[in-house]
Design brief:
It is built from 5 helices and 9 strands. A hairpin with a 2-residue loop joins β2 (12-13) and β3. Strands 5-6-7-9-8 form a 5-stranded mixed β-sheet. It has 183 residues and is of the alpha/beta class.
Length: 183
Protein backbone atom coordinates (compact mmCIF):
# COMPACT_ATOMS: atom_id res chain seq x y z
CA UNK A 1 0.00 0.00 0.00
CA UNK A 2 1.31 3.44 -0.87
CA UNK A 3 1.59 6.04 1.84
CA UNK A 4 -1.30 8.40 2.25
CA UNK A 5 -2.35 11.31 4.35
CA UNK A 6 -3.48 11.46 7.97
CA UNK A 7 -5.26 14.59 9.15
CA UNK A 8 -4.94 15.16 12.88
CA UNK A 9 -7.78 17.02 14.59
CA UNK A 10 -7.61 18.58 18.05
CA UNK A 11 -10.31 16.95 20.17
CA UNK A 12 -11.01 20.26 21.88
CA UNK A 13 -10.01 23.88 21.54
CA UNK A 14 -10.93 26.81 23.79
CA UNK A 15 -12.85 24.29 25.93
CA UNK A 16 -15.11 23.47 22.96
CA UNK A 17 -15.21 19.82 21.83
CA UNK A 18 -14.38 18.94 18.24
CA UNK A 19 -17.36 19.21 15.89
CA UNK A 20 -16.98 15.67 14.59
CA UNK A 21 -19.48 16.07 11.76
CA UNK A 22 -17.64 19.18 10.52
CA UNK A 23 -14.36 17.25 10.67
CA UNK A 24 -15.79 14.35 8.67
CA UNK A 25 -17.29 16.75 6.12
CA UNK A 26 -13.91 18.50 5.82
CA UNK A 27 -12.06 15.24 5.17
CA UNK A 28 -14.71 14.07 2.69
CA UNK A 29 -14.94 17.31 0.77
CA UNK A 30 -11.80 19.43 1.08
CA UNK A 31 -9.13 16.79 1.63
CA UNK A 32 -10.57 14.02 -0.53
CA UNK A 33 -11.35 16.39 -3.41
CA UNK A 34 -7.73 17.45 -3.67
CA UNK A 35 -5.82 14.40 -2.39
CA UNK A 36 -2.82 14.92 -4.67
CA UNK A 37 -2.28 18.48 -3.46
CA UNK A 38 -2.99 17.38 0.11
CA UNK A 39 -0.13 14.90 0.01
CA UNK A 40 2.26 17.74 -0.81
CA UNK A 41 1.61 19.54 2.49
CA UNK A 42 4.90 19.85 4.26
CA UNK A 43 5.19 17.69 7.35
CA UNK A 44 8.08 15.83 8.87
CA UNK A 45 5.71 13.64 10.85
CA UNK A 46 4.73 10.24 9.55
CA UNK A 47 2.67 7.58 11.26
CA UNK A 48 3.49 3.87 11.45
CA UNK A 49 1.82 3.36 8.06
CA UNK A 50 4.10 5.93 6.39
CA UNK A 51 1.22 8.40 6.06
CA UNK A 52 2.13 12.08 6.17
CA UNK A 53 0.47 13.53 9.30
CA UNK A 54 -0.85 17.07 8.97
CA UNK A 55 -2.62 19.08 11.66
CA UNK A 56 -6.13 19.93 10.51
CA UNK A 57 -5.74 23.59 11.44
CA UNK A 58 -2.55 23.83 9.35
CA UNK A 59 -4.46 22.29 6.44
CA UNK A 60 -7.11 25.01 6.69
CA UNK A 61 -9.79 23.31 8.81
CA UNK A 62 -12.09 25.55 10.81
CA UNK A 63 -15.68 24.83 11.72
CA UNK A 64 -16.65 28.20 10.23
CA UNK A 65 -14.95 27.49 6.90
CA UNK A 66 -16.44 24.03 6.57
CA UNK A 67 -19.71 23.85 4.72
CA UNK A 68 -21.48 20.96 6.46
CA UNK A 69 -23.51 18.61 4.36
CA UNK A 70 -26.66 16.65 5.05
CA UNK A 71 -25.74 13.46 3.25
CA UNK A 72 -24.59 11.47 6.31
CA UNK A 73 -27.94 11.97 7.99
CA UNK A 74 -29.82 11.22 4.80
CA UNK A 75 -27.78 8.05 4.29
CA UNK A 76 -28.66 6.98 7.83
CA UNK A 77 -32.35 7.56 7.16
CA UNK A 78 -32.21 5.62 3.88
CA UNK A 79 -30.36 2.77 5.61
CA UNK A 80 -33.17 2.50 8.15
CA UNK A 81 -35.79 2.62 5.40
CA UNK A 82 -34.04 -0.08 3.36
CA UNK A 83 -32.69 -2.39 6.04
CA UNK A 84 -34.98 -1.67 8.94
CA UNK A 85 -34.04 -1.81 12.55
CA UNK A 86 -34.58 -5.45 13.31
CA UNK A 87 -37.68 -7.56 13.83
CA UNK A 88 -40.42 -6.51 14.12
CA UNK A 89 -40.07 -3.61 11.75
CA UNK A 90 -42.35 -1.92 9.27
CA UNK A 91 -42.28 -4.15 6.15
CA UNK A 92 -45.78 -5.29 7.01
CA UNK A 93 -46.93 -1.65 6.69
CA UNK A 94 -44.76 -0.08 3.97
CA UNK A 95 -41.49 -0.43 2.06
CA UNK A 96 -39.03 2.14 0.73
CA UNK A 97 -39.71 2.67 -2.98
CA UNK A 98 -37.16 5.36 -3.88
CA UNK A 99 -36.20 8.99 -3.49
CA UNK A 100 -35.60 12.15 -5.47
CA UNK A 101 -33.42 15.06 -4.39
CA UNK A 102 -35.17 18.34 -5.16
CA UNK A 103 -32.85 21.20 -4.31
CA UNK A 104 -33.08 21.76 -0.58
CA UNK A 105 -35.71 19.04 -0.17
CA UNK A 106 -35.87 15.28 -0.57
CA UNK A 107 -38.90 13.38 -1.80
CA UNK A 108 -39.05 9.86 -0.40
CA UNK A 109 -41.39 7.28 -1.91
CA UNK A 110 -42.99 4.55 0.17
CA UNK A 111 -45.16 1.65 -1.02
CA UNK A 112 -48.07 0.55 1.20
CA UNK A 113 -47.72 -3.20 1.70
CA UNK A 114 -51.46 -4.00 1.83
CA UNK A 115 -52.48 -2.41 -1.47
CA UNK A 116 -49.30 -1.36 -3.33
CA UNK A 117 -50.20 2.35 -3.29
CA UNK A 118 -47.12 4.57 -3.51
CA UNK A 119 -47.01 7.84 -1.58
CA UNK A 120 -44.37 10.53 -1.56
CA UNK A 121 -43.22 12.26 1.56
CA UNK A 122 -41.15 15.39 1.25
CA UNK A 123 -38.70 16.47 3.91
CA UNK A 124 -36.39 19.49 4.15
CA UNK A 125 -32.62 19.10 3.85
CA UNK A 126 -31.90 22.50 5.40
CA UNK A 127 -33.15 24.64 8.26
CA UNK A 128 -35.06 27.81 7.41
CA UNK A 129 -31.82 29.81 7.75
CA UNK A 130 -30.09 27.62 5.14
CA UNK A 131 -27.98 25.52 7.52
CA UNK A 132 -27.98 21.88 6.39
CA UNK A 133 -29.81 19.42 8.57
CA UNK A 134 -27.34 16.86 9.84
CA UNK A 135 -29.80 14.52 11.48
CA UNK A 136 -33.09 13.38 10.10
CA UNK A 137 -35.69 12.27 12.59
CA UNK A 138 -34.40 8.86 13.55
CA UNK A 139 -37.96 8.02 14.45
CA UNK A 140 -39.35 8.92 11.01
CA UNK A 141 -39.54 5.28 9.83
CA UNK A 142 -41.48 4.36 12.98
CA UNK A 143 -43.70 7.43 12.68
CA UNK A 144 -44.55 6.42 9.12
CA UNK A 145 -45.43 2.94 10.33
CA UNK A 146 -48.09 4.47 12.56
CA UNK A 147 -49.26 7.15 10.08
CA UNK A 148 -49.79 4.87 7.07
CA UNK A 149 -52.23 2.19 8.29
CA UNK A 150 -54.53 4.61 10.13
CA UNK A 151 -54.71 7.07 7.23
CA UNK A 152 -53.06 9.77 9.35
CA UNK A 153 -50.46 10.39 6.64
CA UNK A 154 -53.22 12.13 4.70
CA UNK A 155 -53.62 14.70 7.50
CA UNK A 156 -50.31 16.26 6.42
CA UNK A 157 -50.36 18.96 3.74
CA UNK A 158 -50.49 17.64 0.16
CA UNK A 159 -47.88 19.39 -1.94
CA UNK A 160 -48.18 17.45 -5.17
CA UNK A 161 -50.78 15.16 -6.69
CA UNK A 162 -49.28 15.04 -10.19
CA UNK A 163 -46.08 13.10 -9.46
CA UNK A 164 -45.43 10.33 -11.99
CA UNK A 165 -44.04 8.09 -9.24
CA UNK A 166 -46.85 8.25 -6.69
CA UNK A 167 -50.44 9.25 -6.06
CA UNK A 168 -49.84 12.09 -3.63
CA UNK A 169 -46.89 13.80 -1.94
CA UNK A 170 -47.21 14.92 1.67
CA UNK A 171 -45.10 17.60 3.33
CA UNK A 172 -43.51 16.23 6.52
CA UNK A 173 -41.45 19.32 7.32
CA UNK A 174 -43.13 19.73 10.70
CA UNK A 175 -42.06 16.21 11.70
CA UNK A 176 -38.42 16.88 10.78
CA UNK A 177 -38.19 20.49 12.02
CA UNK A 178 -40.73 21.00 14.79
CA UNK A 179 -42.23 24.48 15.08
CA UNK A 180 -40.52 26.75 17.56
CA UNK A 181 -42.50 27.12 20.79
CA UNK A 182 -44.48 30.32 20.96
CA UNK A 183 -43.57 32.81 23.66
Amino acid sequence: MASGLAVEFALASDSEPLDVEAAIDYVRTAVAADMNRSREWQSNVRDSHRNVVVEASAAGFTTEATAPSYDHGLFGLFSLLVHGGGFPWFEDVYTFAGFMLRGERCRIYIRVTDNGTVYGIEIPLTHADGRPLRRFAGSLPQELASLVPDGDLATNPVIDDRDDYCGQVFDLTSRIIPAAPSA
